[in-house]
Design brief:
- This protein is 41% helix and 5% strand.
- By secondary structure, the chain is mostly helical.
- The chain has one domain.
- The chain has a two-stranded antiparallel sheet.
- It starts with 7 loop residues before the first helix and ends with a helix.
Length: 81
């Protein structure tokens, strides 16, 4: 992202908020559930299309996050998506 991007700071805040997704993956699968933060709900399933989008975002925006925070999560997502 260019240094002079007008909405750069806002975008970085959004990406940093997405770090919370790493706590909500189906730990064995690397995918996310349809209702991301409620994996125990009956009828909630692992969702592939949004998992692919989350994985892409994590990999592409990782440079904006400290300490390569999402590298392992993104790698697992790539393996299953």
């Amino acid at each position: 992202m260019p240094q002079n991007q007008p909405q750069g700071a806002e975008l970085i805040k959004i990406v940093q908020h997405w770090r919370s997704l790493r706590e909500n993956t189906g730990s064995k699968t690397g995918l996310w559930y349809q209702i991301v933060d409620n994996a125990v709900s009956r009828g909630n399933w692992l969702e592939t299309s949004s998992s692919s989008m989350y994985t892409y975002m994590m990999d592409g925006c990782e440079a904006w996050l400290p300490g390569k925070a999402l590298r392992g999560v993104a790698q697992k997502g790539f393996e299953v998506c």
